[in-house]
Structure formats: structure tokens, C-alpha cells
Amino acid sequence: MEVAADNTVLAIPGHVAIIMDGNGRWAKMRGEPRHKGHRQGVKSVRNIVGACLRNNIRYLTLFAFSSENWRRPRTEVGLLMDLLLTALGSEIKELDENGVRVRFIGDRNHIPVNVQYAMEDAETQTVSNDMLTLVIAVSYGGRWDITQAAQRLVEQVQSKEIDAENITEELLAENISTIDIPAPDLFIRTGGEHRISNFLLWQLAYTELYFTDTLWPDFNEMAFGMALKDYAKRQRRYGMTSEQVVSRKISHA
Ligand code: IPE
Ligand code: IPE
Ligand code: MG
User: What spacing in Å lies between the alpha carbon of 198 and ligand 1's midpoint?
Assistant: First the structure.
């Protein structure tokens, strides 16, 4: 829990979702190949996982590889898959010891089988941890997620488990890949671009958005702290008026 100078307790987001962008440019600035930037990016992941644990943030979702990233040169795709494999190998023990539960979301079909196995192992090994849930989006696209939810609903209609007219937002949400994970409170994109790039389209409906020019390999605990401070200043209204939000807060206090 963080306390501001005037002694008020800063609101900490329960779920932070991050587009880790800018690895390639970080490497290019140093005259290094792109994969050096990706490798350095793993260190930022370690730092931010640690920062989440220290701040009592319960969910962290990281965009590691998008549905569209399959369009990159084959060598870069291969290197990214290898990096995922080695990072899981080197980090999973410590994540487990720190009470981190690892989960993956995304279309696993195209992922190399050895990487799929490592993903399943990481999920099984950490399944009973509950300090922080680390959701890693690999081969993930928001449109894919909504499409697969629609497919599952159709199957349930066909098998007469549900009636088509009873499909609600809640029912669709129950078939989205982040079922049982609350929607992100804070979205962060590093690397200077101001776009969602097909990340969590359904889940970000009421998330607070934060963009920073800092490149992902440079994104440290201090930069993360700035995002948390910015989040703490926001008033989340969910369609209501500012006065309504204030009076609800008072009545809940
Ligand atoms: C983000 O960094 C990592 C992945 C998309 C896997 P980039 O590789 O997109 O870095 P830039 O945007 O080219 O700098
Ligand atoms: C988004 O970054 C995907 C990940 C960080 C995994 P990109 O670098 O792929 O996004 P665009 O292509 O610039 O929108
Ligand atoms: Mg990029």
C-alpha cells in the first residue's frame, strides 16, 4: 500500500495489463540486433513482476507475442519462441517460490510443441500460487479471443445447453480467455505508440490507459511507479457523473 504526502492511501490497481513495446528500437539505438532488445526485455519483466508483488497487485497481464507478430521475419519469430522457452526455464523456479501463478492466453495451435509443453508445465507447477497471477499473452489477439468465445457459445446453443436469446454480455465474458480474471484496471503501453494493437479488446472497455515513450527494456520500477501514481489520480466514473462517484465512495467508506 502506498501512502501519498498528505497521508491519503493511493489507489493501487488490482490488475495491470502491459504492451511491452520498443525492444527493437532499444537494440537499434545501440547498433545491436533486435533480439538483444528482446533479451533485455526479459529483465524488465523480472523487475515489473517484483514491483507488482511488492505493491500487492494481484494480476499482471503481459503482451508477449501478438497474432500479428507471426508476420515478422521467420528468424525473429523463431528467436522470440526460443526466448520464451529459455525465460520459462530460467525464471519458473523463482516465480513459483514467490507465489506467482503463471497462465497463458492465446491461440496455442501455431506455437512450437516444445514451447507449448513448457507453457503447460509452468501452468501446472504454479497452479496453486495466489500472490500474483501472471498472465502471458502469446499468439494472442483480442479479435481471436472474441471469435473463439462466439464459437464456444454457438456450440453451447447447438448442444442445447443455452438458448440463443439468453446470450448476455456476462455469458460472452464467461467464454473469453480471461474468465475468472477481473478486467484490467490499468493498461500501460511502452515504446511511444498510442494504439491497442489487438490486445485485450473486450476486457479494456473501462480500463484506464497510460502511454509512455520509455522503451520496454528501459521500463524499470521507477517508471512503473509513475504509471501507478498517474492511475491513482484518475476518477473512474463508469458512465456516471462525478458527483455520483463521490457520493458512492462516501457511502462505502
Ligand atoms: C515488442 O518490441 C516485443 C514484441 C512485439 C515481441 P518490438 O519488437 O515491437 O520493438 P519495436 O517496436 O520494433 O521497437
Ligand atoms: C504489440 O507490439 C505486440 C506486443 C508487444 C507483443 P507491436 O510492435 O507488434 O505492435 P504494432 O505492430 O507496432 O502495432
Ligand atoms: Mg513494436
Answer: 14
Q: Kindly report, residue by residue over 47-99, the tens digit of the pLDDT.
A: 999 999 999 999 999 999 999 999 999 999 999 999 999 999 999 999 999 99
Output the CA 216–ligand 1 centroid distance in Å: 9
Q: Give a yes or no: residue 177 inside a domain.
A: no
The partner residues of 101 in beta bridges, in order of sequence, read 133
Judge contact between 26 and 219, C-beta under 8 A. no
In ligand 2, the atom with minimum distance to the C-alpha of 63 is 6
Predicted structure pTM score: 0.95
The reported pLDDT for the residue numbered 212 is 98
Residue 184 and residue 106: Cα distance in Å, rounded? Answer: 17
CATH at 131: 3.40.1180.10
199-210 per-position pLDDT tens digit: 999 999 999 999
- Cα(1) to centroid(ligand 3), Å: 33
Q: What is the CA radius of gyration of the chain?
A: 19
Query: Domain count of the chain?
Result: 1
Question: One-letter amino acid identity for 216?
Answer: W
Residue of 18, 20, 21 to mutate, ligand 2, most atoms within 8 A of C-beta = 21
Give the number of the atom of ligand 1 that is nearest the alpha carbon of residue 215: 14
Structural domain contains residue 167: no
Q: In this predicted model, which residue has the larger pLDDT, 68 or 8?
A: 68
Q: Is the dihedral of CA 36, 38, 39, 44 positive or negative?
A: positive
Least confident span in 14-28, 49-63, 159-173, 238-252 = 238-252
